[in-house]
## 1
Amino acid sequence: MIFNKHGIIAANFKHTQKEKSMKKSVLFTAIFLIATLVLGACSQPAPAPTAAPTEAPTEAPKPTEAATEAPTEAAPAATLRIWADDTRAPALEKLAPAFLAEYNVALNIELKSSLRDDFQLAAPLGEGPDILFGIPHDQVASIVANGLAAELDLGEKAAQFVPSTLDACKYDGKLYCMPYATENLAFFYNTDLVETAPTTWDEVVEMGEALKAEDKVDYIMAVTGTTYDLYPLYTAFGGYIFGKDANGNWNDQDLGVDSEGMIAAAQWLKDQLDKGNIPADWDWANNHALFETGAAPFIMAGPWALDRIRQSGIPYAITNFPAGPAGEGYPFSGVQTVLINEQSENKLLAQAFLTEFVATEDTMTELYNVGQRPSAFISVLEKLDDADLIAFGKAGINATAMPAIPAMGSVWGNWDTSILLVRDGKQDAKTALKEGAEKIRALIANPAYGMVNVPGSYQDQAGCEAAWAPECAATQMSKNDEGLWVSGPFALKAGEYEVKVALDGNWTTNYGVDGEANGDNYKFTLDADGEVDFVYDEATHLLTINVK
Amino acid sequence: MALADKPKDAHSIAESQLSKIIRVVFMIAFNAGALWFIYQAYSKGFYQIAILLGIIVVFFDVIFSLKKGYPFRWMAFGLAFMLVFVIYPIFFTLYIDFTNYGDGHLLTKEQALVQIENATYLPATGKSYDWTAFKSDNGEYALWLTDRSTGETFLAKPDEEIQATKPGDPGVGEADAKGVPQSIEGYTRLNTLLAAADKQLPNIKFGLAGEEGLSTVQVRSPNEAAELQIRYLYDKEADTLTDQETGRVYYDKEGIFTSTDGRTVQPGFRANIGWKNFINFFTSPALRGPIVRILIWNFIFPLISVVSTFALGVSIAIMYNEKDFPLKKLIRTLLLIPYTIPSVITILIWRGMLNSEFGVINRILNAVIGTAPRWTTEPIWAQIAVLIVNLWLGFPYMMLITSGALQSIPTDMYEAATIDGANSWQKFRSITLPLLLVAVGPLLIASYVFNFNNFGLIYLFIGGGPAIVGASTQAGHTDILISYIYKLAFESGGRGVQYGLASAISVVLFILVGAMTLFQYRFTNMWEEVSENA
């Protein structure tokens, strides 16, 4: 029965199919035709016979856009595409008509929520904007490393910026972004509960415990995070993240996550937690609520939280950070910046836009008004009259710029985990931070951390895949009893060879002739097939080559 | 009858001819459009996309021109989209596996070379100037140059020797405050922005080159024009770069031009690095570390999730399958709510409710029984919390699918069982469950596989935490493979964004999940046997 039924259904279907097929194919054809036409029309390049073909499509001005933006003007001479965040985009929108009127250049402002991620995806495809507006300076590092940020020349305008903010934009001595604002944490206290600001962390505990004993507060302090948000506490105890080398550059081999001060500060936090002085949960919003409802008299917060604290109506004052065993604590400082896309075809125009139009008192004042951060532009900063922001500036006077080195990317997560393990009582402060620091070191230094090698043109005869391989384990040196590093002997064919000393399996630290860092190659010659061994003294960085 | 049929036939033949014409026109248009796309993709260096489009075009042409391809015409679009959005990404992932695509190697080699070849340097003897641009009516530029060290002024035009000129000279107007002439005969003075709006300006070489002591000047930035030289020469044959300034030679070494003494030329680019990503993954501390623990949890988490959601879903479905259940419709509607609210919102709400310190659940527990579990910091409670949230998210779906299946179970079976003296549990075990499993078995597997990769829940709810003490990488007790990989490849637990490594790991993961699904389909066969017996 069922089988028959199926047969009938199938037959019926075939019948109707044939009838409908004509209509269907017409329909499909129509859809396809429209689709091809639309697609073709959209992506048709503007005829630009004289220009190079690759430049043609983007070069053509867009007449329709120009018409809507400036109905009285002729088409603008050029268009700058800008990506900005939700704070900066409206401010730029406001400036666009003035800019168009003055210079006949249209600004096409697009709002983006995750500027860096979107940019790193779009820019390599040639779809990025000309200008990226509102990038924190520590995020610029990876953009520069990816070759997506253009070098900047602010010319004489450079003198009008706060020098430290310009430093934050420099990589390898070259300027890659233009700063416009700075931000850092400051110490807030509730003026109803506390009369005079505490100057040391001991006073914080003393005052807080007194209030707690009177049942006026639940906690002595609100804690809004584990790493960045607690940095002024860590520094007051002598903690740090990266040390600096003699030239003032960050030294990623000097990691301070497990420094004495960091451990002491983590222990201090754990002690306060055990006494019930601070909450066991350090969620940002929850802890802000503690301060804003008067349940905690102290908090460390940034200018981004100023609005919500003001709106809460709690009486507050902003002051410098309390001191600890290592002196007054200092926060990280961040610099908000603008950068130009290296892949942009409008680099010169974009630079001119920044120097001629953005780096002016009017625009910088406008940016200050929407952003509510101390300006990086000296003349605007000098006019700063907001008492809160002045207090922020004072609290951040000794701030260290957030290290903008790739190694920093490996720090945040592991540092956070270590502090959480201490907070939750899973590990004591020392073990947790030591283990966290080891993980970071492993990531920064790569698997070959600690390796001493003699990369050179001989390596392909010594069991390596290729010559000049600092990571090749076959030629790795080992330390002898006298404290000297030795490798070999290697059997080599007659010929001329060049070598160098490299540490940690890469070229970052390398020594050449006379033990000079980044110096010239050592050269040696084998007149006949023979053996060579190497001796390296890590005190003098000198390499001895013994040819047999 | 026959008469009536005839005109209809003629009509349909005419229609088919019309459709044939339209089809040919459409195919020509389609081919033209597609060829243009392919050309664009090819000329921009997206070879894979060009090849893919080519395949689709051939495929469409065959289908729409051959009679045999007729049945495929209905599926052509679906197949094309599948090719573009499913098959292509798979192959792209496989390709990315073997590259170092990621931070530091984002650009293609062509893009990196364009950038490197555009790099310029100012030789030690080279001069640098402040500039002001002038433009003639026929679009030619002239630059007014002020030497930065000596303050001497020059007028430079393309292909003409640079002339030392002062304001007030013949044809040159008087100087303004900056010492730049207000006008030059035949030219209009441009402000910096207006001049910069011309993309060609930085490429124009002012002055005459080639002869001894002469060099051209180019605009370098809005402030500076200088006697720039091309910095790097690329030798295509040898694939090497030569630095014109220092003479150093750079070789392409795994996506970055590196000299023998270890100096590199930025930017790096994507390069084929063979099996390195896989080797890195299998030899990294990430694998030696907590991977076993994560794998075990990765199998347990979806298993308990599926069993618990199925159990709750079935019980509720059976309950309101009873005819005289009060307020049936209202309850059924209410129970569907968790399914209709976007899970992102639900997860975040649960995250707040289960907060150890401030969460409503712990406050109530503390008030009522005086103690409360620390959901976010104790490993076992964190795992339980994740399972509870997933139960909340998942049971309405199970309820929906089982209530449908329940209605298809013939009631006479229950009647027969009642006559045989079976109690409710026996009826459930021997009738309801086996017949249900036949219907929803494949859906349970789908649910298991979905939860195996339930990144959203784990990541949003707790971020994989709490951390595993002593793990060599950043790993948490609730981390499943996919969230762990995310941490390693994209977050601060690793070394910046590494698409290559992430692709390699996801291929390993794909093999795991694929094997699992295959294995479980064997079980469905088993269920089918059960149904035959029933």
## 2
Amino acid sequence: MKILVIEDEPRSAAYLKKGLAENAFTVDVCANGEDGLHLARNSQYDLIVLDVMLPQRDGFSVLSRLRTEGNQTPVLMLTARDSVPDRVRGLELGADDYLVKPFAFSELLARIRTILRRGPARQPSTFHVADLEIDLARQRASRANARLDLTATEFRLLALLARHSGEVLTRTFIAEQVWDMNFDTDTNVVDVHVRRLRSKVDDPWPTRLIRTVRGVGYVLEEISS
Amino acid sequence: MFWKKFRREPAPLTARLAWWYAGSSLAVLFVMTGFLYFTLVRDFNQQNDRYLDGKLRVLQTLLRESGDTDATLKWEVDEDLSEDPSVRIFSRVLSESGRTLFETDGMSREIPAPLFAGGPEIESPSGKTFRIMSGTALSRSGHTRYRIELAIDTRYESDLLARYRSEIWATLIAGLLISIFIGNRIARRGLQPLSEMAAAVQGIRSSTLNERIKLSDPPAELDSLARDFNQTLDRLEEAFSRLSRFSSDIAHELRTPINNIRGQMEVALARVRTPAEYTDLTESCLEDCERLSRLIDSLLFLARAENPETEIRREPLDVAGELKRLAEFYEPAASERGIQLETSVPETCRAAVDRALFQRAVGNLIENSLRYTPRGGRVQIEADGDARGVALCVSDSGIGIPEEHLGRVFDRFYRVDPARAATGAQAGLGLAIVQTIARLHGGDATIQSTVGQGTSVRLSFR
């Protein structure tokens, strides 16, 4: 998967390149809108990460040029200015998603994967992580063939983690997806929910699958040690 | 371009007042002098008529007593009645057939008989003006009838009146100048407190907002204006100091996490650490970054809410369902702290509110309650709606807030216990955000609290 990052701030560009490369993406970086537009026209990318504030040609302009020329490469916009008109403008011009700085890198990664997953790929109805099996259609989860007794909320939480297995999910994202809570909470509410889930999914077994990533959130994955 | 600007500039109040004063006093002066002038003209005419009338009577008496032969008559006709040389009367006695019997010398030259057909004032061929009168007389026997024609020269009065008129004009012009001058002085003097006030207002800068307008001897109207202005200044000063306090609070809040990050990094770099230590350091820094971004989010939210153009996205919301979901969300955290979380909402409670903001407000309140309620306590969410909106109350059996703090708990960065600053990631913005959300919905937030018994916050959404 090839990603073009158009970002003028060198440190941001550097960590984006590093982070994305470590997650198995091929990354090209360029530091201004004009070069970015040129690269986007002349090479084939799976996705463009586009900063709004750019020298020479701003992100909105790059995006609208690409779209008027018929280039449909998915675009994820980054901005430090979080105003509703800006967001609306970006989406109207044909951006696929919009992320406000400061953002968690894991959030960016999750959104990139979501955009790339869109389209023909169908969501499977069952997920497997190590010996954990989650059946979305029948609302059932089992580990090592033993049925897990989960509440509806716990199941939704586990299903979310499973759907994004291997990705670190932030507490805000989890609260939004599972409880439809659209604000940042600063208490350990999500932690308590995850702790409860863990007591059923992880505690009875020798290997833990739900891992805490301090300062970021949670990830469901098989640790290959 | 200049003249345009000049023309558009409104006349200063002093000039307007001066012109009004001058105009009105001039009008009064004009009416008065006009009245006096016409009175004088009338008096002159009456006096002349009296002279003529007297003369007529004398001639009538003489004609009746002695007929038209008496020498006295001739003398009387020639003799000027008045001792005043300026008064000159012409008399003429005619027979019934119209023949002149006697007349003052030169009368037929000055005033030919046909002229007597006119009104009380006539002009002679030589350009003099006369006031005339005519009458009849009978002889004692009653057989002979005479006609008497009298005329008085009014040149003296005309001259006098002409002089008088030019004096009137001079007076009027002088009056105009004097009243402009006086009007100007009066206006200036009357507006003196206003210019004092203007000078005082001009001197006020953002750095001298503590200054107030003090007028030496203010008239009632300006006094109330000055009072209003001072009250505005009070509010401005309050808002200004709040703002500067707010800025220093922000700086302070940013300082703590940045200091943490910096310190940890420096200590870590001082010597080589194990990978586990580096991981720990990075994670700890991430937590501080998280705290910083949350602070920035909250500040941006409050700043944006202050913009009067901020609009909220209202949608019909099932309040009961929403509160139930919130309670479900917070229930594990509550039960872990040994706190009972209860909701009491009528099933049918609905309202048109911005859902994300509603969640945020109620969530903040629940979090506050959970934070300040000891184990074994209880947090209750109640709501009720009517056609006008929804009223909501989150109450707890927590530690409560001392009364002296209640007035300020909705202020940004205000903390009842400053020592708790480090623990609350909301940085003392939670309640400010709650109140802002309620106000964005046209409602408000109020708080009641008793130390040791608990706190309840009421929200209204309209």
